[in-house]
Amino acid sequence: MTTDRDDMMDPALAQLLREAADESPPAHVDATILAAARRAVEPGQRVRSAASPWRWLLPLGAAATIAAIVISLQPLAPAPVEPMSSADNASARQPDQASPADGAAQASASALAPPPAKPQQRVIANSRSSGAPVAPEHDLSTQKREARKAAAAEPPATASATAPAAAPAATLAGAPAAPSASAAPTLGRAAARVDAGHDATAWIQRIRTLLRESRRDEAAEELARFRAAFADADARLPDDLRAFAAQSHAKSAASPR
Amino acid sequence: MAAADETDESLMLAYARGEALAFEALYARHRSGVYRYLLRNCGDAASAEELFQDVWTSVIRARTSYLPAARFASWLYTLAHHRIVDHWRARGQATLVTIDDDAEPAAAMALQSPRDREPDEEASRREAGMRLRTAVSALPPAQRDAFLLQHEGGLSLAEIAQLTGVGTETVKSRLRYAIAKLRGELRVLREGA
């Protein structure tokens, strides 16, 4: 190649042409081309860096954080609302007398729930194990109120009749159930004291009815119980019973108990 | 890497691997020659700049597919030659093949125009160089292209023949005519001085 040119080119002509060859591309064209050349190889470097395993670190960390939040919030999500079944009600009212059919449910509940230190906690555990929410109307305080209403609606006619009515209240209050009739007056007084404001009028009406039916002995016994239950029993008595109360008081004072 | 000791081909391969500095070395070696080749062939600086950017953009894009089967300079000036041919075709001008020294006396007459001008007694070598450049631009396209490929690109007769798609003897003929005309121009300049 060089030989070809040397053979054909005049040295003086070649020298003049070299001296005259002073044109070159403008600086902005040089800058444009060099910048394009650099840009062309930069994406390749970015691709290599992106191929490193560290590029997974950020999305992996974000996914792990989201998963942890979801798992931690899952137990706090509200359970679907279902009506409380009769079995649940029964076990809630008498947790210590649950039927054998409830044994499995209670066992699973005891496995999931803390030890049943209180009956109310046990009721909640049973409800959660069956997926049903706790019914607020059926807690122990509500049952206690219902027992008081029942006692007020039905004043104790006799000692034997008083005991069954007072027994549930005593049981719910933590006391043992009345084993015999001898304990009935005590329990009857206890129950009568609880509902003092509501019972006095009914009790007086009962005494009046017994007198009207000429059942004076029973009326006297009832008056004695009334006096035992209320310190101001004589003050509560109406005028038509005061005479009977005075006779009954004199009779009881004369005869030993 | 010492770019000065590297061949054009190894620099191009290094650039294909992502070394931008290799391209800068390659560009520094060939930027002026390619630019003058385009400027002499197309005649105006604006078109030459546009074509120049096209050529080097083609080099950048073809970096990953480049194979050093031939000299880098031959490959580079092939790209430039194709741009010039496209440029002439876009302007509706004749191609390099049809306009030759023997077939176009009008093109040869263009060389005589500087001879008609009054020689400047104070013409410097710079002016002589400018006239020679003008004379090169006035050469018939085929002769001019062959001359510029040899003078600016340093291509051999075989490379020019392969690049332009003609035989080696045709290339020799074109170069012989071109140089003869330029010598005549130089003689006129000397006589004028």
Describe what you observe in this structure:
The complex is a heterodimer of chains A (257) and B (193). Chain A has helices at residues 2-8, 11-20, 27-50, 57-73, 86-93, 101-112, 119-129, 140-153, 159-172, 184-194, 196-212, 216-229, 233-236, 239-254. With 257 residues, chain A is mainly alpha-helical. Among the domains of chain A are: 86-128; 157-254, no CATH class. In chain A, α8 (140-153) packs antiparallel against α9 (159-172), α9 (159-172) crosses α10 (184-194) and α11 runs antiparallel to α12 (216-229). The model of chain A is unreliable at 1-6, 83-142, 151-188 and 190-194 (pLDDT under 50). Chain B is mostly helical and 193 residues long. Chain B has two domains: 1-92, Rna Polymerase Sigma Factor, Chain: A (Orthogonal Bundle); 94-193, Arc Repressor Mutant, subunit A, CATH 1.10.10.10. In chain B, 70% of the residues lie in helices and 0% in strands. Chain B is built from ten helices and no strands.
Keywords summarizing the entry:
heterodimer; A: 257 residues; mainly alpha; 14 helices; 0% strand; B: 193 residues; Rna Polymerase Sigma Factor, Chain: A; Arc Repressor Mutant, subunit A; 2 domains; globular
Q: What is the number of helices of chain A? A: 14
Low-confidence stretches of chain A: 1-6, 83-142, 151-188, 190-194
For the CA atoms, what is the radius of gyration of chain A? 49 Å
CATH architecture of the largest domain in chain B: Orthogonal Bundle
Helix and strand composition category of chain A:
mainly alpha
Average pLDDT figure of chain A: 61
Query: CATH superfamily of the largest domain in chain B, called what?
Result: Winged helix-like DNA-binding domain superfamily/Winged helix DNA-binding domain
Query: What is the number of beta strands of chain A?
Result: 0
Mean pLDDT of chain B: 83
The assigned structural class of chain B equals: mainly alpha
Distance between the termini of chain A: 150 Å
Describe the sheet with the most strands of chain B: none
Oligomeric state: heterodimer
Sheet of most strands of chain A = none
Radius of gyration of chain B: 18 Å
**What is the molecular shape of chain B?**
globular
